[in-house]
From TrEMBL:
Entry protein name: Queuosine 5'-phosphate N-glycosylase/hydrolase
Phylogenetic placement of the source organism: Eukaryota, Fungi, Fungi incertae sedis, Zoopagomycota, Kickxellomycotina
GO terms (BP aspect): tRNA modification
Stored Pfam families: Q_salvage
Enzyme class of the recorded protein, top EC level: hydrolase
EC number: 3.2.2.-
InterPro entries the record matches: Q_salvage (IPR019438)
Superkingdom per UniProt: Eukaryota
Function as written in the Swiss-Prot or TrEMBL entry: Catalyzes the hydrolysis of queuosine 5'-phosphate, releasing the nucleobase queuine (q). Is required for salvage of queuine from exogenous queuosine (Q) that is imported and then converted to queuosine 5'-phosphate intracellularly.
PANTHER family: QUEUOSINE 5'-PHOSPHATE N-GLYCOSYLASE_HYDROLASE-RELATED, QUEUOSINE SALVAGE PROTEIN
Catalytic activity: queuosine 5'-phosphate + H2O = queuine + D-ribose 5-phosphate
Length: 396
């Protein structure tokens, strides 16, 4: 059986959408060395970027992180984390078996993208990026569209448009030089997002089939049977699928974020870990933030991270960030989150804030903080805060 990581990036089958090709920027970044812990590489590379020589693109306020941890509302924390972490339990769907459900949960994680198109999505569909992905994946399941490796390859752009509710055509304009009522439709501003989604699905299907896996669920199940840890699953997912290779070269150094691969590991553990030992990852607390467009905005709002003037001005104006700028914001969020975790743990061990760590079923770690901040960003008074905008990415 071939190792998926050894398969070529192209050269087999029909060409993939150009928007997806351009959005998979991490394909050119070398993966961590053999034997390295991928979760630690995320922490270390993020910290190295923030602490780099010269003026940082985004600074982390350590003192503010400590005071924030001391004042964190334990009851609110537990309530928000429970709501976000249990999303898979609330899917209004029926499944033939566990593998079918696992496949859909993993596909939702694979497609957690499109945040840069948030405003366009709300204007066109009334849904944000995350809801658009959930809506589309549920529609595919309800319509009994095959979602195994071959089924993913068979999907077309029209399928994405139909199931995800993404318009491919925009406004109509009169045809130039026409003396009749002929009009021409402009491509929709959301068409690139549809193409990125299609590329993620088609390329994943191709690589799964060539690697000898019948579906994404088959890949996850067999990977976790080898070694039931979150780090092992993240490592394998990132190595196998370019759509999950969330990394960037910033200033000549690799920065690893691996947002979606970590999110898949977390969701699989939350949904299936209670009934299947191979998904009950003992290192689930080692995951980092699933850094997207919302969480860094919340940390900037709370003063835990401070972007340079250029980035701050772009965010305030809703303008698109460069890959380096978005990476710096996301990396700084991971560093700040670790400071909050460290403070909460040290306070608990010294007799302070014990209720915070024992708030309920969820301990304070980066993954649960992510759920908390992400849900906090949905509060009515905080929805107006400008998020990060980066459209040419397949990673968040």
């Amino acid at each position: 059986m071939a190792l998926i990581s050894e398969l070529p990036d192209g050269g087999y089958g029909a060409a993939l959408p150009q928007a997806w090709e351009a959005a998979c920027t991490g394909r050119g970044v070398a993966l961590p060395p053999a034997g390295a812990n991928y979760l630690e590489c995320v922490r270390e590379s993020a910290a190295a970027l923030v602490a780099g020589v010269g003026q940082p693109l985004v600074a982390v306020d350590g003192a503010r992180a400590q005071s924030y941890a001391d004042a964190l509302d334990a009851a609110k924390f537990d309530r928000y984390v429970r709501h976000v972490s249990g999303w898979a339990h609330r899917l209004p769907l029926s499944f033939d078996n566990v593998a079918q459900e696992l496949n859909l949960v993993a596909l939702v994680g694979l497609l957690q993208i499109g945040s840069g198109f948030r405003k366009e999505l709300h204007a066109a569909t009334g849904r944000g990026a995350s809801d658009t992905v959930s809506f589309g994946c549920m529609s595919l399941h309800i319509s009994q569209t095959p979602l195994d490796a071959r089924g993913l390859q068979a999907l077309a752009l029209d399928d994405v448009a139909q199931h995800f509710g993404i318009p491919l055509l925009g406004k109509e304009r009169p045809a130039l030089g026409s003396t009749t009522a002929v009009t021409i439709s402009e491509p929709s501003a959301l068409r690139p997002l549809a193409e990125i989604i299609l590329g993620c699905l088609q390329d994943t299907g191709r690589r799964l089939e060539q690697g000898g896996y019948s579906s994404l669920a088959d890949f996850v199940i067999r990977t976790c049977a080898e070694k039931p840890t979150a780090e092992h699953l993240v490592r394998k997912l990132v190595a196998a699928l370019p759509s999950l290779r969330d990394a960037a070269d910033v200033g000549g150094r690799p920065v690893y974020l691996f947002k979606k691969a970590q999110l898949i590991a977390y969701d699989v553990c939350q949904r299936f870990g209670g009934t299947d030992a191979k998904f009950a990852f003992p290192d689930i607390g080692d995951l980092t933030l699933f850094a997207d467009n919302v969480v860094p905005a919340m940390l900037q709002h709370h003063g835990l991270i401070v972007p340079c003037k250029e980035i701050a001005a772009k965010i305030s104006a809703g303008r698109e960030l460069t890959l380096a700028e978005a990476t710096a914001m996301r990396a700084a969020s991971i560093v700040a989150a670790q400071l909050v975790v460290d403070r909460a743990r040290s306070s608990s061990s010294s007799g302070k804030s014990e209720a915070l760590l024992a708030a309920g079923e969820f301990p304070v770690c980066q993954a649960t903080l992510d759920s908390f901040w992400w849900h906090e960003g949905k509060e009515p008074e905080l929805r107006a805060i400008e998020r990060l905008v980066c459209k040419k990415t397949a990673y968040f």
